[in-house]
Amino acid sequence: MEQYRQSNREESTFSLASLHRNNEEATWSQKRSQKKESQMSIKKYAVTIVLALASSVFMLSAHDGDDHKGTPTQGEIASMAADSFQMKTATGTVKVSISKETVFEHEEKTVDKTHFTKGAKISVFGTKLPSGEIVAKQVVMGASTAGKAADHKH
Amino acid sequence: MQTAKIVATAAALAIAVGLVWGVWSIRSHGFSAREKPAPYETYLARRLRSLASEPGAKDLKNPIEATPLTVAEARDHFADHCATCHGNQGDGKTQISTGLYPPAPDMRTGETQDLSDGELFYIIKNGIRFTGMPGWGGSDEDNWKLVLFIRHLPKIQPVEIEFMDEINHLGSGGQEH
Predict the structure, then answer these.
(1) Are B151 and B71 in contact (CB under 8 A)?
(2) pLDDT of residue A48
(3) How far apart are CA B165 and CA B177, in angstroms?
(4) Mind telling me how many Å the CA of A129 is from chain B's nearest CA?
């Protein structure tokens, strides 16, 4: 009888220890899952912050005044001068002012303005003044002109 | 003592009537943004807008000179970012504006033109809370140029509207065509 009691006590001690261990395992597992969740949340927050920053940068760059090139005016160079040229368009001849900031492009490559001569077919991106004059930001010549025009639409 | 009681009762009655009217008004109309703001709301909003500007903002001077080029650059900027709500003419008669509460103002009138350059600059940069006007941030130079263009709006020419239309296809009516 005493032996039985002893064995019973051992068994119950064993099962208590096992229960305790199970509990510990469960707690550890819960902790690990909580840690995982918190790591996931941190990751989510990080991704959200990165996305928010990226969109802010995009918004700011989209608000850059230099991007407002509008649609290009297409035509043919009628005559060249140092700081301007005349361009024949479908509706008449317009003066195009150029400056140090004006970019000249031929088939996607930046070139010198001397590359542009009378008769060249071009597209001019710039600011149109009420007088009809265009202050050029970019003058494009070559096959890519149509593509460029599409690129500059907002 | 008697007077104080009468004043307190009158105040409590006024608050109760106000609450009942407020609840009735909300329940019968809802919060539609398509309604026109009541005069008292417009008055309060303008006072709040005035209070919301940073001290000293009102006195800021525009460092950019108004030339045909600076005004034209701002016109293209306005056409691209502002005209969707304000319209190419700045009259605020656009599809979006009619659904805003409050709607975008007619910028050619005193409501906008009476503001100082500094206030306009501050509003463009920081926006106006509880309205559709966002704080654009952006470069100070571009924002000051926009102030020049807002000053130019009352005398805008049809050819300038045409140039804006090339950018945003809004015409003079503020609705894309």
Answers:
(1) no
(2) 56
(3) 9
(4) 6
Is the Cβ–Cβ distance between B111 and B105 less than 8 Å? yes
> Is the CB of residue B113 less than 8 Å from the CB of residue B119?
no
Would you list which residues of chain A are within 8 Å, Cβ to Cβ, of chain B?
59-60, 63-65, 67-68, 70-71, 127-131, 135, 154
pLDDT (tens digit, 9 = 90+) per residue, A37-55? 666 666 665 655 555 555 5
Could you tell me the pLDDT band of residue B131, with boundaries at 50, 70 and 90?
A: confident
Q: Do B72 and A130 touch (CB under 8 A)?
A: yes
Q: A92 to each of A40, A71, A87, B31, B64, how far by Cα in Å?
A: 64, 17, 8, 54, 33
Cα dihedral B105/B134/B150/A138 (nearest 10): -140
Q: What is the residue whose two structure tokens read 């989209």?
A: A62
Quick: pLDDT tens for A52-82: 555 544 444 444 445 555 679 999 999 999 9
| pLDDT computed for residue A154 by the predictor | 36
Residue B92 burial (C-beta neighbours within 10 Å; 0-12, 13-18, 19+): buried
Q: In which element (H, E) is residue A80 found?
A: strand A73-80
0.80 cut: is pTM over it?
no
Contact across the interface for A71 and B80, Cβ inside 8 Å: no
Lowest mean pLDDT among A45-59, A81-95, B99-113: A45-59
**CA distance to partner chain B, nearest, from residue A25 (Å):** 53
Contact assignment for A130 to B69 by CB distance below 8 Å:
no
- Rounded to whole angstroms, the maximal C-alpha distance in chain A is 121
Dmax (CA) of chain B: 73
